[in-house]
Amino acid sequence: LDWKAYGRLDRAFLKLFEEEEDLAVHILLDASGSMDWGEGDQHKFNYALRIAGALGAIALAEGDQLSVRLLRGQGADPLESLGPLRGSGNTLRLLRYLEGLRPAGETDLSAALRRVAADRPRPGLVFLISDLLSPSHFADGLAAFLRRGSEAAVIQVLAPDELDPPLAGDLRLLDVETGAFQEVSLDSGARRLYRQRLEAWQAELQASAVKYRARWATLSTAEPWDQVVQASLWKAGMVT
């Protein structure tokens, strides 16, 4: 109630205030061994680091609160985290942190996400950057954030030869996370079946993201990362 206005005009006036609060941005980065794939600019983890750096720089420039957590093993090592940070003056600190990261080991995405959510981070916008190659489904873990009022965006990063393998013949494939081997014979029919199953798998993942109202984008490391940020992620509503 504005008492001064009431005293002058003998009428009641209410003052309304709108408080602007900064957004909490959480970047959750898959640092498992499966991300250690590709060469040069098409290396999956390096590509994911560039996407994380761009999203983090945007958040800092907007005055938002930024945190970065690595997903590795059964969860996220508290030492493998950065933030919360605020202000564009921390951009260099962010980039230096990302530059020193390396992928290794296995990751149970669902368990890792639940462990981070159990730390009760401030509700906000959660970016999950991963190839989603995990024995567990990401959606259950992501739901732990959404139940606390956060919004989510899932960015799947895959290499070109994962989308369309150039291999042929009798092969012995190695799981880079578990060390398990698999003997396969790859001909045109097997490659066609692989692409069909890949499409079905991605459709299932995207449907899960839509179910939880999470934004979704699949990125190939063959696409220039800066163009992806300006086009694909903008189109998906992840950046403005």
Describe the structure.
The chain has 240 residues and is an alpha/beta fold. Helix content is 38%, strand content 22%. The strands form two sheets. The protein has a six-stranded mixed β-sheet with strand order 3-2-1-4-5-8, sandwiched between helices. Strands 6-7 form a two-stranded antiparallel sheet. Helix 4 (109-118) packs parallel to helix 5. It is elongated, with a radius of gyration of 22 Å. The model has no long low-confidence stretch (mean pLDDT 82).
Q: Nutshell version of this structure?
A:
The protein is α/β, with parallel strands linked by helices and 240 residues long. The protein has helices at residues 3-9, 44-61, 91-99, 109-118, 138-146, 160-163, 188-211, 225-230, 232-235; strands at 24-30, 65-71, 81-86, 125-130, 151-158, 169-174, 181-186, 215-220.
Strand order across the largest sheet: 3-2-1-4-5-8
- Approximate shape: elongated
- What Rg is obtained from the alpha carbons, in whole angstroms? 22 Å
Q: What does the main sheet amount to?
A: 6 strands, mixed
Q: How far apart, in Å, are the first and last alpha carbons?
A: 38 Å
- Count every helix, treating DSSP H or I runs of 4 or more residues as helices: 9
List descriptors.
6-stranded mixed sheet; elongated; two-stranded antiparallel ribbon; 9 helices; 240 residues; alpha/beta
